[in-house]
Design brief:
about 25% strand; single chain; 2 domains; alpha/beta; about 525 residues; Rossmann fold; 27 strands; globular; GMP Synthetase, Chain A, domain 3
């Protein structure tokens, strides 16, 4: 068992909203959140007041402890208001990818037991359709829209929400993750999980009131939710939000707001390292870039750092760990590694077959234990027991090594998830969808390496006898059924899908064929 080289930290026994907003009075009129495209600003005192007012308005509508709010929105300042109003009432936030189709949205609404849905006018049509399918009657919209209550109407309540007793182990957030395998599942994160992980991050991610952080990562994703929306605000930093990413818009916001810290994913780091547009902007304010959500090569990391003349480092975590478990200290940054374990985080490197601890330097599955590990998967005891063993070790599904100095490197993945630009795509979900196509008899989906996205979904299909369909036709059909990040980008028509005697798809064989084919080309 390996422990963190960093000293232990104290975890305040506070609900997440009390923790995040504790500096609001002191910081007053300092900008807490700025909407990048419009400049609309929410100060720290304004954020705290809006949270109280929105909580009061929700309570008056019968929303209370244990109720679930679904947030189906891009990054806007009001995202933080809704999230913390709900959490302050003892409610639970289930955050949803705004690119989801109505069917995908309806699944999460139903599975999470959502009572209310918050969205924006541009998404209201999809939100209304999904809410109807899931039986959610209460829709709140940031603005106006037919059949929905305006956000402003709820915000007009007096700032006197009811007093609620919130325990550290009460649920605060319910983001969805595919975990180590299979379809997406609700990850139950408690107030203690969220507060603990921020405290654990602070010794290495020392963001403070002098910093401006850009929020290009979506708040629905645990990385954006915790590391930016919660941690940065809790430490008094100003957050500049982007509702959707485009490189030149991002560069302009960094320049205009003199952004000092950027939490990014590898495809954005790639753009910063290589895109010619970067030369047209003044990015000299940047002091730190942290990359996460997918592996970043040492070469790309060093290229970006050299071009921007700032520290570029890498971290590691999962939705199930709130999310951060490992980070490179900026003053002792080792490119290509994910750094050292955070305080209070215990780790093991375990042989995936024997479950014996691997020797230092040898690869094995990374197991972790600490206060940031989730309470479990919602309504899925089997998946919970598969992921967290009786001794509390969370089995990450990632293969890693550790060196003599305590630096970890992620070398491969046991789990079969595809990481497209940091987003998780479950092969099983796409395989199930492909099998509903009238021309498809059998199907398999694997990750295919891609320089820009990291990985893209590649499908293999066996066509039914006496039918015909081209690869492009099938890919276009899938694209109409799923969110953009789940699209199948490559498809090959084959005679047979390799399977074990028990009928399990042998994706490993397809992955090996794909790698051999790419090497040959």
């Amino acid at each position: 068992m390996y422990t963190s080289p960093l000293p232990d930290v104290e975890i305040p026994q506070l609900p997440i909203s009390d923790y995040v907003l504790r500096l609001s009075s002191e910081l007053g009129d300092k900008a807490a959140l700025i909407d990048g495209p419009t400049g609309r600003t929410l100060t720290f005192s304004g954020l705290a007041d809006s949270v109280k007012r929105f909580a009061s308005g929700l309570a008056a509508r019968g929303f209370g402890q244990g109720d679930v709010m679904a947030i189906y929105s891009p990054n806007v300042p009001e995202y933080a208001v809704v999230f913390h109003a709900v959490a302050s009432l003892g409610g639970i936030n289930t955050t949803i990818n705004p690119l989801y189709t109505p069917a995908e949205l309806a699944h999460q609404l139903t599975d999470s037991g959502a009572k209310c849905l918050f969205t924006i006018p541009q998404f209201l049509e999809s939100a209304t359709e999904a809410a109807s399918l899931a039986g959610v009657a209460d829709i709140i919209v940031l603005g106006d829209g037919d059949g929905a209550t305006p956000y402003g109407d709820i915000l007009s309540a007096a700032a006197n929400p009811p007093d609620v007793s919130i325990e550290p182990d009460d649920l605060a957030a319910l983001p969805y993750s595919s975990g180590t395998t299979g379809l997406s599942k609700g990850v139950m994160l408690t107030h203690r999980n969220l507060v603990a992980n921020i405290q654990q991050c602070l010794p290495v991610l020392n963001v403070g009131p002098e910093d401006t952080v850009i929020a290009v990562l979506p708040f629905f994703h645990i990385y954006g939710m915790q590391v930016i929306m919660n941690m940065a605000v809790s430490q008094g930093a100003t957050v500049v939000s982007m509702p959707r990413f485009d490189l030149e818009g991002f560069l302009g916001l960094v320049q205009d707001h003199k952004v000092t810290v950027a939490y990014l994913v590898p495809p954005v780091v790639l753009g910063l390292a290589k895109h010619p547009a970067v030369d047209g902007f003044d990015l000299s304010s940047l002091r730190l870039i942290m990359s996460g959500a997918a592996p970043l090569s040492a070469e790309l990391q060093e290229a970006c750092a050299a071009r921007l003349e700032c520290t570029v480092m890498q971290g590691y975590g999962l939705t199930e760990t709130s999310p951060v478990t490992h980070v490179n200290p900026p003053e002792a940054n080792r490119p290509g590694t994910v750094g050292i374990a955070l305080p209070l985080t215990e780790c093991r490197i375990v042989d995936a077959v024997t479950e014996e601890d691997a020797a230092m330097g040898e690869k094995g599955e990374l197991w972790m234990r600490g206060p940031q590990v989730m309470a479990g998967y919602l309504n899925n005891e089997v998946a919970t027991k598969t992921s967290i063993d009786p001794d509390g070790w969370f089995h990450s599904g990632d293969l890693a090594t550790i060196d003599a100095d305590g630096y970890y490197t992620i070398v491969d993945r046991l789990k079969e998830l595809i990481k497209f630009k940091g987003f998780q795509v479950a092969p099983a979900e796409l395989e199930g969808l492909l099998l509903t196509h009238p021309a498809v008899a059998d199907a398999a989906v694997i990750p295919s390496p891609d320089d820009e996205a990291g990985e893209v979904p590649k499908g293999f299909v066996v066509l039914k006898q006496d039918t015909s369909a081209s690869a492009d036709e099938i890919m276009d059909w899938v694209a109409g059924e799923v969110a953009p990040h789940k699209k199948i980008r490559l498809l090959e028509i084959v005679d047979e899908i390799p399977k074990s005697a028990s009928g399990k798809i042998l994706r490993r064989i397809l992955v090996e064929r794909e790698r051999a084919s790419r090497r040959a080309s």
